[in-house]
Design goal:
Layout (H helix, E strand, L loop, with lengths): L3 H21 L3 H7 L5 H33 L1 H20 L4 H14 L2 H11 L6 H26 L6 H20 L19 H8 L5 H15 L1 H14 L3 H52 L3 H13 L3 H12 L5 H31 L10 H18 L10
């Protein structure tokens, strides 16, 4: 089977998925205010709650989706998820109250299996020593989507806060059709694993994946890293509006610049870094860069500094694919979906905690009753968390040596 068309579909899937996220981020504060949030601080809290609901659903159902893909294949899971994503955006686009957004986030969270299943598919068709770089391609596609999504979202936002949701629904529907026509299956009888409810839940999957050598420590690292890194989608729109007075269009441009930088790093630079220093040192380098970037963002005082920092910030994303590659090479071929489901759950726990923690921190330090005004406080918190990840990861026993 040729890898070219499946890889193309995976990259387009992740790109459109991230475009959908980027489309709605610039307008979410205004939509929440329109639906009843009294001010920007209150809208930030509601935004955190919606992200948390989405993440709870991902946490509960991520392992189920992963195990289903190990049993029934990646293709049906991806196509059903994409179709449900389209419905989710339509529901949110027609929302007349915040509780309708809540329903949309519940549906979206249950079926949000596109990136984790895409990673499992990529693992299926990758040589062990290629997995980290190919996971980087997935990240690059996500970055390209972040270039296009926020720009389109900022422009569509001038037509009203609901327009980007309908655009995202159309993109998801078109991609569902594309996948139906082009996608082939990678799960064969040789690696097909029976579905077992005892493993198709967060606790059961974590128990089985945690038995793999060295993976338990890496899951803890992945957990803290996700809490730290999700400071960006959690508070970016609120932070830039509060700190620099940016509108939705300018917020979209800033996210697009970050997305472009991230795509360059994960699509190209990571393929040069990992063969030279290995996955272990790539993770350490990425964590160190992230710690510096978060700290500098915390004290930025002019908008131009955000754009100047984008290249530095984007370099930190090399840590994620390298960390995934280490874990994927530890898992067997019939556990790739299960592993990605567990990573989805771990990521979801981080997303549950991060939006609530970061938006609450932002809200506290931007209210008139705060001991001092400091909208960059969430980035300081992320610095601490990524340093914790670095310390835990550095103490692991290395089971594999990367070979170029």
């Amino acid at each position: 089977m040729s890898k070219k068309l499946p890889v193309l579909f995976l990259l387009v899937t992740v790109m459109i998925d991230s475009m959908g996220i980027g489309l709605i981020m610039p307008v979410m504060p205004n939509l929440l205010i329109e639906l009843g949030a009294t001010d920007l601080s209150r809208a930030a809290v509601w935004g955190g709650m919606l992200a948390t609901i989405f993440a709870i659903m991902q946490f509960l159902f991520g392992p189920t989706i992963g195990n289903l893909s190990d049993r029934y294949g990646r293709r049906p899971v991806l196509l059903i998820s994409l179709a449900a994503m389209s419905v989710d955006y339509v529901i949110m686009g027609y929302a007349h109250a915040i509780w309708v957004l809540v329903i949309g986030r519940i549906i979206g969270g249950i079926t949000a299996a596109t990136q984790s299943t895409a990673n499992a598919y990529m693992a299926d068709i990758s040589h062990p020593d290629e997995k980290s770089q190919n996971f980087g391609l997935i990240g690059a596609a996500f970055g390209v989507g972040f270039i296009l999504g926020p720009l389109a979202g900022g422009l569509l936002g001038t037509l009203g806060p609901r327009a980007p949701f309908f655009a995202a629904a159309g993109l998801a529907a078109a991609n569902t059709l594309f996948g139906y026509l082009i996608l082939t299956e990678t799960v064969t009888d040789a690696i097909r694993r029976p579905f077992d409810w005892r493993r198709a839940n967060p606790v059961g999957s974590l128990k089985h994946i945690g038995k793999l050598p060295g993976v338990r420590r890496l899951l803890v690292v992945y957990f803290f890293y996700n809490i730290a890194f999700f400071v960006y989608p959690s508070i970016w729109a609120y932070y830039t509006q509060e700190r620099f007075g940016w509108d939705s269009a300018m917020t979209g441009v800033s996210l697009a610049v970050f997305g472009f930088s991230m795509a360059v790093v994960q699509g190209g630079l990571i393929r040069l870094v990992i063969p030279r220093i290995g996955e272990h040192w790539t993770v350490i380098l990425g964590f160190s860069i992230n710690a510096v970037a978060f700290l500098v963002y915390a004290v930025a005082y002019e908008g131009w500094q955000i754009f100047a920092l984008a290249p530095l910030t984007s370099l930190g994303v090399i840590a994620g694919p390298a960390l995934q590659g280490i874990m994927s090479r530890t898992a067997s071929n019939d556990q790739q979906g299960e592993l990605q489901g567990v990573l989805t759950s771990i990521s979801s726990i981080g997303i549950i905690i991060s939006p609530m923690l970061m938006t609450a921190t932002f809200s506290y330090f931007t209210q008139g009753t705060a001991p001092f005004y400091f909208p960059g406080a969430p980035f300081v918190l992320s610095t601490v968390l990524v340093l914790m990840s670095l310390v835990i990861f550095s103490g692991r026993k290395r089971l594999y040596t990367y070979k170029a």
